[in-house]
Amino acid sequence: MNLGQWIGLIAIVLSLYILWQIREVLLLMFAAVVLATTLNRLAKRFQRSGMTRGFAVLLSVAIFFAGIAGFFWLIVPPFAQQFQELTYRVPQGFERFNNWLDALRTRIPNQLVPYVPDINSLIQQAQPIINRALGNSFAFVSGSLEVLLKVLLVLVLTGMILADPIAYRKVFVRLFPSFYRRRVEGILNQCEVSLEGWITGAFIAMSVVALMSVVGLSVLGVKAALALGILAGFLNLIPNLGPTLSVVPAMAIALLDNPWKVVAVLILYLIIQQVESNFITPIVMAHQVSLLPAVTLIAQLFFVTFFGFLGLFLALPLTVVAKIWMQEVLIKDVLDQWGNNHQKDTELVIVSEAPISDEFTKVNDPWETESSANDDK
């Protein structure tokens, strides 16, 4: 390798190292781009009705913040009330269960008494875990503050991008060589269309899951059915893990009414998850974004390993964008052209050698020379 190649290799390695060090910032920037794309699509719909760009953007942002405020207004008060009730009813349940175990010990043979669990001993064994969790409360508060600052950063970046998206797009395009900028424009258009498709599909699936959860929990008579259904729909944005997380508060609140409702809620959420994963998501996403289920799961594992919870939340849009760039740049522009160039070079060599071989045959073939001499005679 010459000096220029060594300099290029060192520059690539340093660039990758710097990108790795600022990966969290890049992920926050991508979250802002996804949110700006969503609000920009809503603003474009308002513009088609005759609104100006500025008023359409302000209306889109107002709807977004109203949705966030409405989400917390519907979720937080019922949950606070139910979980406050849960904090004093769970110990009562433990005490009742312990009394039932004591009565069971008096009715069973003495040989089986040691096998009956003791609630007090279980609580004592769990005490170190509880103390450790309480000891980490300060870290939880500081982590919450960090999350709040990141959310504010994403919102500020979203507002800046949404104010003039074309200017930021031109800056990104100019990072590429001049001969490739038109190609980058086309790839960015495909990314925008795919992100809009994912947003539409995710919103449809989220709405269906929320509606099914609200109806099912209302039929079972579970308290705060509306809040639990909205939470289930929101957590459905996290594929595979979201439905599992949403069942925990629903089962906890169902425990306040009757123990059999816990089993009924678990069965209900299993049915909803199966309907969502086998029917809703494949049908909706097939028309919006074509991603294989295994690719989705691998992408989740990859992004949650390197980027944490935010990577898990953004795994699908990241996968959609990464798929387009790999398909257009790596496959079409590099690998496919590489094979075509090699084939063209091979054909060029064969064609260029063919006349030389014929001339050599005509000149050096003795039979043809002798026949030509006889013809001349």
TrEMBL record:
GO biological process, one term: transmembrane transport
One cellular-component annotation, GO: membrane
Pfam families: AI-2E_transport
Transmembrane domains' residue ranges: 6-35, 55-76, 147-172, 193-214, 292-316
Location in the cell: Membrane
Keywords assigned: Membrane, Transmembrane, Transmembrane helix
Membrane topology according to the record: Multi-pass membrane protein
Family: Belongs to the autoinducer-2 exporter (AI-2E) (TC 2.A.86) family.
PANTHER family xref list: TRANSMEMBRANE PROTEIN, TRANSPORT PROTEIN YDBI-RELATED
Name used for this protein in its record: AI-2E family transporter
Organism listed in the record: Komarekiella delphini-convector SJRDD-AB1
